[in-house]
Amino acid sequence: MIFAIFINPDNFPYVFSFTYFTSIIIAFVYALIAGRKLTRKPQQWALTVGCTFLSLILFSKLGSIPVAQWWNFISDNTNNTCQHKTILGGLIGAIVVFLLLRKYFEFSWKTLDVFALLLPFCAAWQRIGCLVSGCCFGNVTHASFSFQYSVGSAAYLAQLEHGLISSDYLMSLPVIPCRFII
Q: Which pTM does this prediction carry?
């Protein structure tokens, strides 16, 4: 290992939430503004953007929960301790809702371009939050560039559980986070 960045997620407890919500807000505002240039139906466009982003948020959470537990989550929020999110579930929900509303309000296919521009930006910004919070820590590596997380982080606890390190280690083994690669 030539160069490792040490990250203590406890020093940045709200980084993931911050990057997640700022990307949603920036993308929402951009979609409202950019879409108004593509359609002559501003109220319908605002409703479409709002429903699309709401479904993105809802299905990014539902996508990380087993289908059998969806009703419990929706009806009484019994799974409120789960902090996981998945972009795949969010994308599926958002695409389905957008396509249904696009057809209903008779928007052109060109309106889909607004969201195509937003996805890479939002994904990159949220991955910074994943990297710092350590939720998607990846695999142990011997590469010349890696990251190490502090005691109590998800990477440290997973390596401890799998017997890769002992409890007297002060940090995780070097990892290359999956969010850093993809």
A: 0.71
